[in-house]
Amino acid sequence: MKIIIETPKYSFFKYEKIEGRYKKIMFSPIPTVFNYGYIDGTEGPDGMPVDVAVFASRMSKGAVINRDDARKFDGVIWFVDDSVRDDKNIIYVSGFRNTSILSIYFWIYAKYKFFRYFMLKRKVTVCRFEGIEWY
């Protein structure tokens, strides 16, 4: 399984690879507390590649993690974005792992996404953090 990092840990911007370059697609009021990426060659319910939150030291945009499929993931962040299931699989390598603090982070992030859709797209939609499960 090939995981590609799009947004490095501590970034205030979410990045996406578009036409071979990483472009800023969204500002976040709180910095990302993990490396954010996706599983190459997959598609989630939202039509985008399946999301992965990598808890490790800061990684650069485009960094690749090759993970044995048998090991899969260390947990999941249950999330709904724009009324569509958009869970984030967890890979834990090292560092911060406080479920209470992460829950607050994702609760704030879900509220931000709701208001962002409302203000920028004039759209009322469901954005909801539903919990974290560690395996």
SSE layout:
Blueprint: E1 2-7, E2 13-18, E3 21-27, E4 35-39, E5 51-55, E6 64-66, E7 75-81, E8 84-85, E9 88-92, H1 99-121, E10 128-134
Parallel strand pairs: 5-9
Antiparallel strand pairs: 1-4, 1-6, 2-3, 4-5, 7-8, 7-9, 7-10
Q: What's this, in brief?
A:
The protein is α+β, with helices and mostly antiparallel strands and 135 residues long.
What does this structure look like?
The protein has one helix at residues 99-121, and strands spanning 2-7, 13-18, 21-27, 35-39, 51-55, 64-66, 75-81, 84-85, 88-92, 128-134. It contains 1 helix and 10 strands; from the N terminus they run E-E-E-E-E-E-E-E-E-H-E. Helix content is 17%, strand content 39%. Strands 1, 4, 5, 6, 7, 8, 9 and 10 form an 8-stranded mixed β-sheet that branches. The protein has a two-stranded antiparallel sheet with strand order 2-3. It has a single domain, classed as Inorganic Pyrophosphatase (Alpha-Beta Complex), CATH 3.90.80. By secondary structure, it is of the alpha+beta class. The mean pLDDT is 94.
- At CATH level 3, the topology is Inorganic Pyrophosphatase
**Percent of residues in helical segments?**
10-25%
> Which blocks of ≥5 consecutive residues have pLDDT under 50?
none
CATH class wording:
Alpha Beta
Whole-number total of structural domains: 1
| Protein structure class | alpha+beta
The percentage of residues in β strands lies in 35-45%
Which CATH architecture would you pick? Answer: Alpha-Beta Complex
The gyration radius over C-alpha positions equals 14 Å
Shape type = globular
> Counting H and I runs of at least 4 residues, what is the number of helices?
1
**What distance lies between the first and last C-alpha atoms, to the nearest angstrom?**
18 Å
Name the CATH superfamily assignment.
Inorganic pyrophosphatase
The residue-averaged pLDDT reads 94
H and E string: EEEEEEEEEHE
Question: Main β-sheet: number of strands, strand sense, barrel status?
Answer: 8 strands, mixed
